[in-house]
Each structure stands twice: as structure tokens, then as C-alpha cells.
Amino acid sequence: MSSEKLKIAVLGGTGNIGEGMVLRLALQNLMAEGVKNEVIIGSRSKEAANEAAKKAISELENCGFDTSKITITGNSNHEAAQAAEVIILTIRFGHVLPLLHEIREALEDKILITPVVPMEKEGDLFVYEPPEEGSAALAIQKNVPASTKVVAAFHNIPARKLRDIVKCKSVYHALVCSDDAEAKKLVIKLTDHMGCMKPLDGGPLKQANTMESLTPLLINLAKLNGFKDLGINFS
Amino acid sequence: MSSEKLKIAVLGGTGNIGEGMVLRLALQNLMAEGVKNEVIIGSRSKEAANEAAKKAISELENCGFDTSKITITGNSNHEAAQAAEVIILTIRFGHVLPLLHEIREALEDKILITPVVPMEKEGDLFVYEPPEEGSAALAIQKNVPASTKVVAAFHNIPARKLRDIVKCKSVYHALVCSDDAEAKKLVIKLTDHMGCMKPLDGGPLKQANTMESLTPLLINLAKLNGFKDLGINFS
């Protein structure tokens, strides 16, 4: 158990996956001994990020949680990244590379987590469309400083279940891959405290393409077989 | 319920996945009402196939099953394919295209099931290495007559669990994809009677690449996280 404060920026934290991630990361301060996460929502607009932070805190209060030990603030994507040790990119692949270019110097020596999935709709179904590097994770690695530790994780967790901090009792496997052993270890620990995820070591970053391709698979299987919010378990 | 006899050739039926498939397909005659599967093991050597068929029957007898309603025979790959309505390719990707070329005329109008996964070992882990068509399934479709109905299925079932007809109580999701609705329906029905699989519609054959890539993922996750014989469940 460490009692260090960990500053985590959730860029795109006002979006679908981002909202659930923010709530779950903040709640770890109440759920797991010694955890002191400080969550910073990043957004293109500082005002929107601030609004989202206030909304998240009041939602936790309304659910009956003691928010005196919880820190959620909002800022611009650049300021949020600058302040954080861990940065989570909960934004669409199409916006990722321009953003990384814009905040490049804020990424030096940081852990950068990508749950990003490049996919396209084709008829009723989704198709995984990785960039020429082989995966979003590898394209991201190519576009950040050499000192940035890229970790791919959280692609396959149904957003609605992640968001549902009170009622969701389901636990899904979450695959974590990286070429940096220490960074992977930290993300596995974060994941383990998330309440709805059981982390598994997914190997090196080269394996991220399979993890990314599971997201369109899950959406397609739900659509084709009449399910909702599918997650994945290995047994 | 149909009382028609369905002749199923398991090419490579003397191998790892093939053995379990043969036993499970034959056992359906006892387990599911109206099913009358006739299983033909195909192999490069007719003698080896015959031996494997005898061994399978005697294994079922030793497990206490009434084999009077069970038909398992052996033949050359070509003769087995010729006699069957459904052909399952339980052989390595490297051997598939030459074999398809050799037995091409026996494939006309047949249902051809591919659980084939092209993968390579890289260090301790496996990497999915699809051919330029995008998947083994699409490469196979390109190399068979236009009248052959290609169905991709059974990639992600742990061989040892499939083989363990008595003790294995685990049930895994099995993804089935095809561009032919009728053929997909038949394979989903076959899968549903397998005892260790719950079939899911995986969509068109174009989606087979994701299903194929799950096999190296499962092997890697088992290796990296200290598990054995991992299968997959969606929930």
C-alpha cells in the first residue's frame, strides 16, 4: 500500500467512457486503503471540464459517498496533462494524434494510458480499422516523446456498466499491455481497484491490436445476438 | 428436430482439436434427440484415419457410452471430403491451401468449416499472422469453388477441454461467422449440441479475423497470468 498522491488526468473526461473512469478513479480513495488519487478532467474547454468535475462530485454526494477525501478538478487538456503523472486518453482515435502533438511537452516521463479503438461502421456492424502502425497504441507510441510510457488498457469495458458505480456488480477482465514493466504494474493496480474489472497482463504493446479489436467484436456480438453492454471473461 | 443423417468429415481428425471434435460430434447421436451424425475422420493416410476411428469408438465404449448408435469411420482426406456434406478443417494453416487444391472437386456445394488460425511464435508469445486476404477464412474462401459455403467457427475452444468428454463441465462461447445464412444456422445447431459450447452469431465471414486472433490472445493470457486451457465468455 502506498499513501502517495497519484495525479491522474482523464482527457476527454466529459465523454462516455471518461465519466465512468473519473468516478471510479476518485472512488478508489474510499474503497482501497492508502489510495489517494487526484483526478483531473481534461477537456478542450476548461469551463466544460470544470462543470464536469462539479457534476461528478455532486453525483458522488447524491449516491451517499463522503466526498471529503475525493479530489476531482477540471482543466484544459494541456493543463490537465501537465499536472498529472498518469494520463488517460478517453477520446476518439481521429482526435488523438493532433491532441498529442499539441500537448507533447506535457507527456515527458508520464504514463499514458490508451483505451482508444480505431473502428468504422460498416452497415450494421463495426470493423476494426487500425492505422498502418498496426494499432492505435503503436501509432500513439510513435507520436509521443521517447520517455513517455504507453500502456494500452480499458478498451473492452462496457461504458454504461463502468458509469453505473452503484448498481453494477459485474466484473469483467481488463487486458493491460505495455513495453514498460513498471508502468504496466501501476496500471494493473489502478485497474484492480476499479470495482468492475479484473486486470490481466496482456504482454507487450505489440499485442494491443487484439485488445483493440475486441471492442467492435463486443458491439457486434451484442447487436447480432440481442445482448446489451457485453463485457468479456476468460476462464 | 431433423432425423436426417448428416455426414461430417473431420480432416486432420487424428490431431489435437480433431480428436475432441470427432468424439463430441459422434456423441450428439446420444445426447440430442433426432441427431444422426456420421463422422468420417480424414487423414493423409487412410490407415491412420481408420486406426483413429477405431480408437475413438473404443474410447467411447470405455467411458460407458452405447456405441450402437454411433458411426465413426476413417478414410483419406479426399474420400472423407467426397462422402461428407459438412467438412471441418482441423489442420494447420500452412497445410490448408495445398489440401484444398488437392480435394477441390469434393468441395462443390459443401459446407466447409474453418477453425484454422494462422499464428507464429515470437519469443514466449504467439502473434496472429493473417494472410494478405485478412484472415485464414477469407484465404480459404478464395481457394474453394464458388458453391462451397465457408463457415468460420471453433477457433477459441481449449483443445484439452474439448477432448475431455466426461469431466469437462465448462461451457465456452463459440463464435460462428459466415456469408451463408443457412450454413451458419446449421453450424450454430451443431455447436449447440457440443456440450461445452454456447454458439454466438459472429456476423459475416469478414469478421473471422477477430475470431482467429482470439486464439493467440488466449494462449498468451494463459502463459502471462498462470492459467491453463483458457476459453472465453461474453456477459
The CATH class label of chain A is: Alpha Beta
Query: How confident overall, as mean pLDDT of chain A?
Result: 95
For the largest sheet of chain A, list the strands in their spatial order. Answer: 3-2-1-4-5-8-9-10
Order of helices and strands of chain A: EHEHEHEHEEEHEHEHEHE
Q: Find the CATH topology of chain A.
A: Rossmann fold
Instruction: Compute the number of helices of chain A.
Output: 8
Number of strands of chain A: 11
Q: Quote the distance from N terminus to C terminus of chain A.
A: 29 Å
How would you describe the oligomerization state of the chains in this entry?
homodimer
The 3D shape of chain A can be described as globular
What is the CATH architecture descriptor of chain A?
A: 3-Layer(aba) Sandwich
- The share of residues in extended strands of chain A comes to 15-25%
By CATH, the superfamily of chain A comes out as NAD(P)-binding Rossmann-like Domain
Detailed description of the structure:
Two copies of one chain form a homodimer. The first copy, chain A, has an eight-stranded mixed sheet, with helices on both faces. A two-stranded antiparallel ribbon of chain A has the order 6-7. The first copy, chain A, has a single domain (5-225), classed as Rossmann fold (3-Layer(aba) Sandwich), CATH 3.40.50. The relative contact order of chain A is 0.14. The radius of gyration of chain A is 17 Å and the shape is globular. Chain A has eight helices and eleven strands. With 235 residues, the first copy, chain A, is of the alpha/beta class. The A-B interface holds A 125, 127-128, 170, 172, 175, 200-204, 206-207, 209-211, 213-214, 216-218, 220-221, 224-225, 227, 230-235 and B 125, 127-128, 170, 175, 200-204, 206-207, 209-211, 213-214, 216-218, 220-221, 224-225, 227, 230-235. Strand 11 of chain A pairs antiparallel with strand 11 (232-234) of chain B, so a sheet runs across the interface. Chains A, B: InterPro entries: NAD(P)-bd_dom_sf (IPR036291), NpdG (IPR010185), P5C_Rdtase_cat_N (IPR028939), STEAP_metalloreductase (IPR051267). Chains A, B: Residues 7-117 form the Pyrroline-5-carboxylate reductase catalytic N-terminal domain. Chains A, B: GO terms for molecular function: coenzyme F420 binding; cupric reductase (NADH) activity; ferric-chelate reductase (NADPH) activity; NADP binding; oxidoreductase activity, acting on NAD(P)H.
